Amino acid sequence: MSVIECNNVSIRYMTGDFKAIGLKEYVIRHLKGNYHVKEFWADKDVTFKLEKGDMLGIIGSNGAGKSTLLKAVTGIMIPTYGELHTRGNIAALLELASGFDGDMTVKENTYLRGALLGYTRQFLDEKYDEIIKFAELEEFQDYEFKQLSSGMKSRLAFSIACLVNPDIIILDEVLSVGDGAFRKKSGDKMKEILDSGVTGLLVSHSISQVRELCNKILWLDHGKQVAFTDEVELYCDAYEEFLMTKKLPKKRADIDKLAADYKIRLQKEEEEKDRKAAERAAKAQAKAAAAK
Question: Which residue intervals are annotated with compositional bias (Low complexity) in the record (predicted)?
Answer without folding.
Answer: 283-292
